[in-house]
Amino acid sequence: MADITRRPLFSHFRGSPTDHVVHLRRGQVVHQGTGQAFWFRPISAVLAEVPVDDRELPLLFHARTADFQDVTVQASVTYRFTDPELATRRLDFAIDPGTGRWRSAPLEQVATLLTELAQQQAIGLVATLDLTTALATGTAAVQARISEGLTADARLTDTGVGVVGVRVVAVKPEAEVERALRTPAREQIAQEADRAGFERRALAVERERAISENELQSRIELARREEQLVGQQGANERRRAEQKAEAARITTDAEAARITTDAEAARTRTLAAAQAEQIELVGAAEAQAEAAKLANYAGLDPRLLLALAAKELAGGLPAIGTLNLTPDVVTGALARLAAPNGG
In angstroms, rounded to a whole number, what is the distance separating the alpha carbons of residues 113 and 155? Predict the structure, then answer.
């Protein structure tokens, strides 16, 4: 809105950068443009102000699909006045020179025009679609149709209005229909959830079974190893006992051998002593016998002793086959025998 300062004969107008002002006096343009500031006489001045910034127009209207279902289209249109001077000639943008306010509601007229045009384009498109298609692809289709329709509309062009953009937020059915349409999807989602739950339970059971099998296998392996350990311990104890028994046997054998050796040594010593004593006794007996024999020969004639010695000697000599005695030998022997001393 313009800022107007009143004085007794003149008033001062100060616009804004987003408002286009047209100052007419006697039908001639005196000032025109955005951001204008000037003095004017209220009694002879005609002022018109057109906003040139972007304007948002929200839209909400109903449409009917090809299968006679009511839907609600929620959209918004962004527009602006591309030719403000042309807009001042087509629409009433005149302002009060005293207050700076519009004498009428030009923006409401533009909003009504845009709403009717957008609604016409959207209704025409939705009427060719069934409910499912309208809900699935209707948002983009309606947006494209409204944008094309408003851009190509000659009335908007002649009014100096340009459409900057169109956005369709949603195409919604009635609440009951929407709930009915959501039911299959919800059922499918519930089924998927149940299936996921069943699969999760089955997976949990499978994992528990695997864990139980692993525990059982572990226990079996532990028992097997324990059996091996017990067997090995028994074998070790048996080997240790055998080694102890073998050591005891060796010790016993050694002791018995030692005892046997001692006994044999004692027996050998006893036998040797007996043999020595026997030899000693035999020797003594032989000595006594020799002494007695010599005592018997002590009083005998030497010649007799010589004969006995010869006899003994002859008994020890080898057998003689032929003995030749000459007279010389016999004579000499007899002479020696006849000698007094045997000599």
Answer: 9
Specify whether the CB–CB gap between 50 and 113 falls below 8 A.
no
- Residue 26: which region, alpha, beta or left (left: phi > 0; alpha: psi -120 to 50)? left
| pLDDT grade for 314, boundaries at 50, 70 and 90 | low
Q: Are 22 and 29 in contact (CB under 8 A)?
A: yes
Check residues 301 and 190 and name the one with the higher pLDDT. 190
Kindly give, in sequence order, each residue whose CB lies less than 8 Å from that of residue 103, ignoring residues fewer than 6 positions away.
92, 94, 95, 96
pLDDT of residue 303: 67
Query: Rounded to an integer, what distance in angstroms lies between the CA atom of residue 168 and that of residue 30?
Result: 43
Helices (H), ranges, the chain:
84-90, 106-126, 131-152, 154-159, 175-297, 302-316, 327-338
Tokens of 79: 């527009």
Rounded to 5°, angle at Cα 72 from 69 and 73: 125
DSSP structure class, residue 343: -
Contact 341, 302 (CB under 8 A): yes
Instruction: Give the angle subtended at the CA of 134 by the CAs of 132 and 140, to the nearest 5°.
Output: 135
Q: Residue 122 and residue 147: Cα distance in Å, rounded?
A: 10
Residues written for the chain: 343
